Amino acid sequence: MLKMWNKAHQLAEMTPPERNRWVDFLRAVSIMAVVIGHWMMAGLYVDASGELRRGDLLSVADWTHWLTWGFQVMPVFFLVGGFSNSVSWAATTAKAPRDAVGVYRDWLASRVQRLITPTFPVLMLWAVLAVAMTQIGLPREQIRMATEAALIPVWFLAVYLLVTAFTPLAHRAWQRLGWLSFAVFVPFALLTDWLTFGANVPWINFTNFLWVFLGIHQLGFAWRAGRFANPVFAWVWFAASLAILIAITVFGFYPVSMVSAPGGFSNSLPPTVALFVLGAAQIGLVLALEPAGRRLLDRSGIWTGTVLMNGMIMTVFLWHLTAFVLVMTIAWLGFGGAGLESVPGTAGWWATRPLWIALYILALLPLIALFARHERSFGPIRGGRTVPRLRAVLGVVAICAGLGATAGLTIASPDSVSGIRWWVIALPLVGAALMGFGPVYRPRNRPGAGELR
Known about the structure:
The protein has 453 residues and is mostly helical. Helices cover 66% and strands 2% of the residues. It contains 22 helices and two strands.
């Protein structure tokens, strides 16, 4: 870790003055909120009969539903994504000749590769583990529970890649329409919720993955264009959004919890208007704090920590629940369930949280050491050639479908001999092949830990 810190410090010293450090800080803080939130909300315990049970803090402590307003930070990721994609796409089109062929396809392939490369190792490891656990005779339900818990984070990647694919159209819409290119998504999200809950139209709610997160993504363009530069405007945006959020949850139809919780429908899977409004409130708050935050990031230590975190951010995101499952497995099989006697939400459970989180961090550190290099090791697109447009589109669709199925269905199969759904594993691999790259990459001479993207 000391070596990684020193490398991050070197990169931090080379940061150009025009870089908006608040973008990188928000990305780092958001990922930590997700990690801590997952480690806190989910929990296993041993019941009175000695059986291992899956607990859920949200189901036993209603007051924790309010905490999801701070821990459900996916909208902030899409805000940062909109800002970053705007910078990247503008730079790409500025350098490319007007008649260049395949500019978009090459740009999209590079963005997809940055995200999918660190994802392959965790998918392949859990596929191997699922097969092995099936063959030695572990209960299928426990295998499903383990793979589901470990691979939940990949749903975000499926949606993020899909939204990223719309960047050129979204960017052009922002340049021509400004705020209207954001506002148009509000009635779409409202209509989707009405069709879902009012007219009981099946499956239509899944379109909100696009309407909600494309809308948030547009606010990243607005941020880069300086529309939130006035802190007063940002504070008013935050206050108005928070007032609407309280009105539609506390006094309205939507649950307070912004993640899936017992006793109501989910505001996040698929997203609802409530999550859209929460995102708007979060964005108003973080952008109102930007001037003070950027001054804080002028401090070398804080900025170096931000650079370090950004250099391994995908590894932390993808592997933190594997670390959780690893610790739980060792406690259950190696120590007979020692420490798992407390039911989530009880005083004893809360008292032991710091210890358990420390154990999760210790389990995560070697995973970071092993797999963080995949965030910095990219092979070239095959042969340096631009793939045909149809192949690129089909590749992105296959990757998104595979990652979505991984999170929604899980890779574990309840009845196959192998124990896994091979087609779920195959889809991202096929998609990557269609786009011209595969799951195995040779390290290249690229910046090390702390690389800023």
